[in-house]
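Key idea: predict the complex, not the pieces.
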Amino acid sequence: MRATTIHAAGDVRIEEVPDPVLSTGRDAIVRVVAACVCGSDLWSYRGVRDPEPGSRIGHEFVGVVEAIGDDVENVAVGDFVIAPFYDCDMTCANCRNGVSTSCLEHSWWGSRDHFGDFADGAQGEFVRVPHADGTLVKTPEYPADDLIPHLLTLSDVFGTGHHAALSGGVGPGSTVVVIGDGAVGLCAVLAAKRLGAERIVLMSRHESRQALGREFGATDVIAERGEEGIAAAKALFDDIGPDAVLECVGTPESMDQAIATVRPGGTVGFVGVPAEGNSVPVGSLFGRNVALRGGVAPVRNYIEELLPDVWNGTVEPGRVFDLTLPLAEVAEAYAAMDERRAIKVLLKP
Amino acid sequence: MRATTIHAAGDVRIEEVPDPVLSTGRDAIVRVVAACVCGSDLWSYRGVRDPEPGSRIGHEFVGVVEAIGDDVENVAVGDFVIAPFYDCDMTCANCRNGVSTSCLEHSWWGSRDHFGDFADGAQGEFVRVPHADGTLVKTPEYPADDLIPHLLTLSDVFGTGHHAALSGGVGPGSTVVVIGDGAVGLCAVLAAKRLGAERIVLMSRHESRQALGREFGATDVIAERGEEGIAAAKALFDDIGPDAVLECVGTPESMDQAIATVRPGGTVGFVGVPAEGNSVPVGSLFGRNVALRGGVAPVRNYIEELLPDVWNGTVEPGRVFDLTLPLAEVAEAYAAMDERRAIKVLLKP
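Result:
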């Protein structure tokens, strides 16, 4: 099959790789219908993290089950399925505690598996799913084409935005500031709105992202950054600050900004993948009772809750995709994301 | 009046200072019936923080209202009252949000007030309370002598232990590890038990503290420290870890231990005053979705909730006092705490 590989910073290719085969009774093989490029894929692409040459890449996909192992019970050949950005069994203690990203049998798409082989990445034609019954969620029926981008966001960005909002304790009447106007930040706006937030402020200086943020539920947009941005955000909340700040970037600056913006006793819900060496002085939390809650989003635990609203069109998180390319043009997809010409690129194998 | 002053590390004295007087209509003057020495007082005593020479010290007291300003409505002369370890108005947005330690008119006992004068410390004969209606809580009637130590813990340590447990999300059925066997750590055990925790592990290597911890509700005690302590604690919870770790020390080592011990998706409730330079790598939280919640405890917000159980004897947090001295012997009180000859010393003016 054809799949995307990364060889060095800036060097992603479509290559011929071995077709996946069922290796245990719990496996499924899924034919990818849609995948996409994630902001975190850019870390390898930009050389912030060194990719292992030739490794597979991509971790968000929806598709159709092509084959299943003998022990698979929850999905059948022909089902349309959503996969989270990782594999998990959904039966271990951590999965049952709602933290399937810490599954005791967890693995990442594209990473080395227990045998030292590369697991399939999502930016390819097929993916072997090691724990099909845990990982995959089938849709009520085969979706219409225009629903597919929205379903694909349940694989990562909408679930991650939802995790930011839940981690920030967002609920009916909450006041919220969102830092980060990428796909995750925009989905965090949508998730906060869905959970009943009363006022949602998006920090953004990009017109198209501001516009989508407003359509997703942002009541205010602030273009200022740094100290000015903090002051402008607090000013909207009597200089005390909002109940929650959703940190969807991951840099030391954005975390500092989040902590400085939130009100005493409030919560920073953080989902931005932390930059190397990013640390938080405990004293900056202690005196004002600022809580930090978040991390790599256990989106598998959220799919059943979020799917109905996506399926019936109540929310349209797939609007974060502003460019669709064939898989063969994956290099251009990365370049468009890297240069911020696109918010998020959908890939069709 | 006589009051405790601190002049340098190791140098606390009883000195004659001006009697407090009503300075605004919202003031009350309280005659101190019992005060005590806090672990955080030792920071100045040990020179970890430089005390301002001649400043007042002590921040926990109960007493009798001696005089009130014209605008005071909630307490009357002769009332027995509990004061939190700070002054607050209980009407501002932060107080109403449950974070009275961030009161917009907040001040600390013993610190410089808005006029640059030293506020009264609690280790003295009288205290001027700037926001009497907000700060003071009167008891149902004048308490029996043996109830006074228990009431005094509502001024700080029992409320702070309760804050650790609440911050850690402790509730019915929770599994909890408590780091720190000082008065606050022991009160955190008691608070976790009161909130319905199912299993409570106290990290302690001091026999008398272990014994009191068990009486307060600890189901297990672990004497090991460092990596061995982490492994021993996790082993009690299927090597996954407890739902909550209550960090009641404040050193970088204890915070690292707390984060390493808690289960994925769990919460570190922290109330240990953070040591200078104590910082947390965001990566240590992100991958396992470990939340940090806590800070300087807004104990004033908890007094009404905790008082009934203290008043009727359901809980006996005052058992943390294992030494009582007259105020005149305050220097010996500090030495006994510093040398860990006493868990906590009660002072009688």
